[in-house]
Amino acid sequence: MASKKMDFIKGPLFERLEKKDGIRGTNEDKRIGFLSDSEKAREAAEVAANFARQFISRGDYEAAYKYRRDAVEKLDIYLTYCGTGLERLFVESVLELSKLSFAVGRGMSALATYLRKGLGLAETSGNLRSHALICLHLGRLLAYQNKVNEGLAFLEKGKDEVAELGDSDILKAAAEFLGLYYSLQGRFREALIHFERAEEYFIREQNRLFIYPMTLWSLGVTLFAIGQVPRALGFFQSYLHSARDMGLPAVSAIARSILGLALTVAGKQREALYHLDSSLKEAEETKNSYSLFIAKAGKAIQAFQEGDLNNAFEWFQSAMRDGQKAKSALIFINLYIFDMLAEFCRKGFEPVSKEWGYKEQLQICLKDQSLHLRGVAMRMRAMEKMRAGESAHEVMEDLTSSIDCLQQAGAALALIDTRIAVAALYLREGNIEEMRDLLQKLWQAISGMGLELTYLPRELRQHIHDDDLQRTARASERSLLDRYFEFLHNLDGAETEGDLFHRAVRLFSQLLGAERGALFWLPARGRRQEFDLRAGYNLTRREIDSEAFKPSMKLIQRAFRQNQYIRAKPEYSRYISVEDSVSGVLCLPIEVGAEVRGILYYDNSYLRINFDFLSNQWVPLLIDHTNKYIAHLLELIDLREAANRLAADKVYQHEQLGDPIITQDPSMLSMLDKAEKAAKSEATVLVTGETGTGKELLVSRIHKQSPRCDGPFIVLDATSIPENLVESELFGHEKGAFTGAESRKRGRIEIAHGGTLFIDEVGELPLQVQVKLLRALESRKFYRVGGTQTVKSDFRLVAATNRRLGDEVRAGRFRQDLFYRLNVLPIVLPPLRERGNDISLLARHFFNRYASKYARKDLVLAREDEDALNGYSWPGNVRELQNVVERAVILSNGGRLVLDITSVHEGREAENFSDTPTMDELQRRYIRFILEKTGGQIYGEDGAASILGMKRSTLYTRMYKLGIKNRNLR
After folding, report:
1. Rounded to whole angstroms, how far apart are CA atoms 97 and 611?
2. How far apart are CA 881 and CA 875, in angstroms?
3. What is the mean pLDDT of the chain?
4. Most buried residue among 201, 683, 712, 921 by CB atoms closer than 10 A?
5. What is the rounded distance in angstroms from the CA atom of residue 828 to the CA atom of residue 533?
6. Is-contact 686 822, C-beta < 8 A?
């Protein structure tokens, strides 16, 4: 029945994969076609998902989206018609599809259905992490579709579940969504904390373009709202370059339109016009309604600022039409058009729609849950009262309420607008001294944001005198010193060197009012001077390698050679474009151990901040103090990491076997010589041989003889772990990844960093784990179960098995590509029966050990005992011989050793019920008996699962419950 149900699944995905050249071999394509049971359905989805990852790495998001969507469709059909089994894979695939759908801007309707289904599956399976993330993804999608209240409800639920889990990985995965949640509520301080965490994560993972258009919009609004105008402009500029370089015209058009709108609001009309006109052209070419909406709104605001109300109204009408086509949230637009809407209303223009009339928007925003919108609306109502000639008390009441809301929101730019309204009220009432005092504070705040004096209305600017500007400059110097000490305080929380560098670049950018920044790190003197970009802020490797950056690179090199700071304007050719030119550069040398090791670089393109507010006396002190502080933090980080490595080794390092490998057999000696040569390399080793031949002992010897001998030696026995827990044991898991995952757990691969990972009985690994292991081997990167943060581990893999992996590959139970990756250096351990005189040699060794251990010096291993031992075939090999000798030493009476060679496999049946065992005990004994009979073989025609009439996974689970460990059977 299941086979019939799966027939229709072998459709479009298989055909497309079969036609696709250069991605996977024929065997992979054929495997997708044979979807006869749940394991094959799982593997087909894994193959499609693997294709998606390959296309992502190439920057082809369209192809990645198609393959990921196909995988989700097949899994959805399977779960609908064939029942359970692939729930977790479906949930993981849907989350990846959500990322890609937003990256390419398609498939939103189907995505909502898949996310809701994934939410239910995550809940029933106890997958707390995925449940939280799906809530966040669904909340973002609903907000994008203009269902803001429902979206906020899901975002809040996801936020609460993330807080419950609370580990750093889930916080990073949720960061952009939490930023969106707080941004939608106009709570910008909280939003920025999460956006910065997301930005840091995306930059490190080098997938910054997964900050989607709506999040991009929200982050831009947030940066402007809190007054970080240089940073916002630099972010949009860098995002524009990245999207353009990676061939994403739709994303590029959106980024350019938002940059044009931002420049309009910042009063940079020439630059704004360049980007708005360019974005209109790009958006029309790509038929991007969202980009057209933003660009036309920017044109409307620009025309309004120039006093051309009719043109502004026409652009605004056109913008609203495109906004409706885009079917995306328009809620942020009223942050910038309230004044324009009010003027339209006063001049008698008809509203472009019932919803977008000024009075309707005012009432909506006064009741909105967004603190920011309420604060702006209260300012607008106060301005109406002032124009109507109402009392100062009535007007000030609304302005005070506006200030309270905006202060809570952290909306510094809107707060300036409200205080400008207060200054206008003072002017109306003739309170000139109070107005001048307020204007001085306003100018200090405006200049600190990188804006110019023209931001103030003309009727207020004329009341600012030269002495006011001088007092403001002195106050700015004091403010800069305060912010510098705050900058040092924020550096203290860095956990790694990379974290420290990223924080330093970002925080210095904010301190200096820079649009872009970077840290260039250099090798010790005496080596070739190649600059390594260790941290970039709104500045990517592509931009640094571009022709436009060469003048700036010359200044960086000069600062390094001369070991002095440089403040200058790069020299450009006259053909450089508006978006590529830089108006001011600052280079600060970083010394470690009295040697220049890096350059902190900052620049501005749009704002007239040339860093000349830094005095020549102050800059050297700044550099010296910063250098000492960073050097101190680097030492602390090194000490902390060394302590953590030592603690991990003590806790997790496997207790290495101390036994020597005892042999006189030529084949064994040849094998040991080969193993010693293999140990000196970094290649993967595959040790094969029957159960009990000493594979773990040999692998331990390889580790001890390798360059990694001082690192950890970590063992994973695939036969002793239930199938559903193997992935968690190998890769680790995050808190809440599944029922029972109450805290984060590091996996064996992660713990083996710097050492050797030994996977015993590698042939027992489930197929889905084989796929993930292959990726980890190839890239040395992986994800914990339920995690989204890449974990890196420098480990060497040595694997062992008692199976013929070639046969397993042909039977479809083991991946061919993984087999080839493991079989670089194959080593075969011969069975004990083929090792000549080694049986007697080993028997004497074990006899001497156990006679000493159990104080049986009276016992003698006679010649006839050795003959008996040599006459037995030893199906359990060295382990069986060891067990037989130990049992004989314990049970023998008198001076003669009494050997009972056959009792290992025979004579137990009669004793099974003599002590009236419980059902669990009876099952435990019988399973152990069958495992001993099969030599530890679990699956296959002669395996224990087949004899017991059980599924392999069921047997693993039963063994785990009963405490049976396959490797230690006696």
Report:
1. 44
2. 10
3. 80
4. 712
5. 47
6. yes
Residue 286 near residue 250 (C-beta atoms within 8 A) = yes
**What is the phi/psi pair of residue 597, to 5°?**
-115, -15
Residue 576 has pLDDT above 80, yes or no: no
Q: Cα–Cα distance between 116 and 131 in angstroms, integer?
A: 10
Q: In this predicted model, what pLDDT tens digit does every residue of 437-448 receive, in sequence order?
A: 899 888 888 888
**Please, is 287 exposed, middle or buried when counting C-beta atoms within 10 Å of its C-beta (0-12, 13-18, 19+)?**
exposed
The first and second tokens of residue 35, run together, are 């979807």
Please tell me the distance from the alpha carbon of residue 903 to that of residue 970, in angstroms, as a whole number: 11
- Whether residue 718 contacts residue 759, with contact meaning beta carbons closer than 8 Å, is answered with yes
Q: What is the pLDDT of residues 894-930, one digit of tens each?
A: 777 878 775 444 444 444 555 556 776 777 778 878 8
The pLDDT tens digits of the residues spanning 340-366 come to 888 999 999 988 877 778 888 888 888
| CA 680 from centroid of its chain's CA atoms | 35
* HEC readout, 135-182: HHHHHHHHHHCCCHHHHHHHHHHHHHHHHHHCCHHHHHHHHHHHHHHH
Phi, psi of 162 (to 5 degrees): -65, -45
DSSP letters of 79-103?
A: HHHH-SS-HHHHHHHHHHHHHHHHH
Q: Residue 799 forms beta bridges with which residues?
A: 686, 759
Dist. CA 315–CA 327, nearest whole Å: 19
Task: Measure the CA–CA gap between 860 and 879, rounded to whole angstroms.
Answer: 21
Among residues 180, 186, 247, 243, the alpha carbon closest in space to that of 217 is found at 180
| Bridge partner list, 757 | 714, 797
